[in-house]
Amino acid sequence: MVPTVHPSSSSCLTSEADEKYANGLFEGLKVYRTQVGRITLFRPEQNALRMQMGADRLCMTPPSVDQFVEAVKQTVIANKKWVPSPGKGTLYIRPLLIGSGAVLGIASAPEYMFVVSSGLNLKVDHTYRRAHTGGTGGVKSCTNYSPVVKSLREAKSAGFSDVLFLDAATGRNIEEVSTCNIFVVKENILSTPPISGTILPGITRKSISELAPDIGYQVQERDVSVDELLEAEEVFCTGTAVVVRAVESVTFYETKIKYITGENAFSTKLHVMLTNIQMGVVEDTKGWMVEVNDTIEIDTFLN
């Protein structure tokens, strides 16, 4: 696979396997401009590894980690003028892996196209389920998002920000919000549902789990019941788009629980810690940031 950079077009050729049977994966990551003018990416190799995991599940051929990171860098260089000034926002990058070979019916496409383009109030959904054991809930597949639209639309029409889904097996444990992971805080223990095939292994989730112990919090990846959620002191969500965002309230049937938010919230501390690393305000002792070298030639790629 040899990646190439082209101007975006209004259409692209895809196979029926992609168009009708959702033979596709996507990722999402942000591009930062630091205080000293450097352009950086946050842990892009983790996005590459997650795409490879998803591709294996969907019988697709993924780019290597080096190809993925290099393609993202090339896209950033080609669009560097759109990276905002420090503190003014970020550029969002959307890598895609889709079937592009000629094939009809349900089957693996013979060819794949890898493309890179540039306080919550939750309702616990006790009717619909986002993912099931043995399915694709644990990979960033295109198939995972359209099924939540109906539930999300109903929640937003009722005044909620988003939907928190429960596990399909018991209906008693929380799993994740429609597009982000969730954490529950009580005392100095940070709990989040385990990665067991039905929850997306979020890169921000992973990063927060590694940062929290640095400031004295214990992280537990385990089943978290609705009862524990309702008894928590604080709840927050993580994801590339939301970064770390506090949950103001959760409604389960007729019960509405409010949580700690604002400057004293643990989620606020974590948000500052993470974004300071991402924006180059503090030293990146974790080795997470990858600098985009503006001297790279656009037509130079890894084999």
Q: Could you walk me through the main structural features you see in this protein, from its secondary elements to its overall organization?
A:
There is one protein chain. Strand 2 and strand 3 form a beta hairpin. The chain is globular, with a radius of gyration of 20 Å. With 303 residues, the protein is α+β, with helices and mostly antiparallel strands. Strands 6, 7, 8, 9, 10, 11, 12, 13 and 14 form a nine-stranded mixed beta sheet that branches. Strands 1, 2, 3, 4, 5 and 15 form a six-stranded antiparallel beta sheet that branches. Helix 2 packs across helix 3. The N and C termini lie close together (7 Å).
Low-confidence stretches: 8-21, 102-107, 296-303
Largest sheet: 9 strands, mixed
Strand elements, count = 15
What overall form do the CA principal axes indicate?
globular
What is the beta-strand fraction?
25-35%
Give the rounded overall mean pLDDT: 83
Short description:
Its cofactor is pyridoxal 5'-phosphate. The protein is of the alpha+beta class and 303 residues long. It has helices spanning 16-19, 44-57, 65-78, 149-157, 203-211, 226-231, 266-278, and strands at residues 24-26, 29-33, 39-42, 91-99, 112-117, 120-125, 162-166, 174-177, 181-186, 189-192, 218-221, 234-239, 243-252, 255-258, 289-291.
